[in-house]
């Protein structure tokens, strides 16, 4: 398992590409976030068909490589292998369906966790990094009850895997996240906007 020092303190989760907008506009925004200092990216884009996602992933991988940033695909593991991505992000559903680690150790496995059962399963399959969410209220998942920092800290204590706090995170919450045991913060809107205050 990679050492936590290999990971930056910020983890960008991309927003969904705007309906009808050219993919080039998405790549331009990604490039801007990378210029601002992002070095770990999860390509989410769940609204795209498989062929469109593969095309976008290939372009995103090329721009990430220009900045020596790592790209994880929120997609089946075989897609990440086929496209040569740096790893995969498992949704909580995909995580719980995994009986073992879905990728070789040379690639990264990120996992989304929302409760203790999921954190423990991520431990069992040998994930490399976790997101635990939602910590604070978020406009992305308005119906999900926030965990709060106290519960977040309890979940972090269940694992030695580097954890990113997700949900309502900005550069201003990085200190709170680290005080609660997180390695760093994961975010969509605040990091996509190119606002990064990297402090590793």
Description:
The longest helix is centred in the first third of the chain and has 17 residues, at 50-66. Helix 1 runs parallel beside helix 2 (50-66). It contains eight helices and eight strands, in the order βαβαβαβαβαβαβαβα. An eight-stranded parallel barrel has the order 1-2-3-4-5-6-7-8, surrounded by four helices. The chain has helices at 23-35, 50-66, 77-83, 92-97, 116-125, 148-156, 174-179, 189-192, and strands at residues 10-13, 40-43, 70-73, 87-90, 108-113, 129-132, 163-166, 184-187. It is globular, with a radius of gyration of 16 Å. The protein has 200 residues and is α/β, with parallel strands linked by helices. It starts with 9 loop residues before the first strand and ends in an 8-residue tail after the last helix. 36% of the residues lie in helices and 17% in strands.
How is this structure best summarized?
The protein has helices spanning 23-35, 50-66, 77-83, 92-97, 116-125, 148-156, 174-179, 189-192; strands spanning 10-13, 40-43, 70-73, 87-90, 108-113, 129-132, 163-166, 184-187. By secondary structure, it is α/β, with parallel strands linked by helices.
Question: What brief labels describe this structure?
Answer:
disordered C terminus, 8 helices, alpha/beta, 200 residues, TIM Barrel, 8-stranded parallel β-barrel, 8 strands
């Amino acid at each position: 398992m990679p050492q936590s020092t290999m990971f930056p303190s910020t983890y960008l989760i991309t927003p969904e590409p705007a309906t009808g907008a050219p993919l080039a506009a998405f790549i331009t925004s990604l490039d801007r976030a990378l210029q601002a200092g992002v070095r770990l990216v999860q390509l989410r884009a769940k609204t795209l068909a498989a062929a469109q996602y593969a095309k976008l992933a290939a372009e995103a991988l090329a721009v990430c490589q220009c900045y020596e940033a790592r790209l994880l695909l929120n997609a089946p593991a075989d897609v990440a292998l086929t496209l040569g991505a740096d790893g995969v992000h498992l949704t909580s559903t995909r995580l719980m369906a995994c009986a073992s680690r879905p990728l070789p150790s040379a690639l990264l496995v990120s996992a989304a966790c929302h409760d203790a059962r999921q954190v423990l399963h991520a431990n069992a399959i040998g994930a490399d990094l976790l997101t635990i969410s939602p910590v604070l209220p978020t406009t992305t998942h308005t119906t999900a009850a926030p965990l709060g920092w106290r519960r977040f800290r309890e979940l972090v204590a269940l694992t030695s895997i580097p954890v990113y706090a997700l949900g309502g995170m900005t550069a201003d919450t990085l200190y709170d996240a680290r005080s609660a045991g997180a390695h760093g913060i994961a975010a969509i809107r605040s990091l996509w906007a190119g606002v990064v205050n990297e402090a590793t």
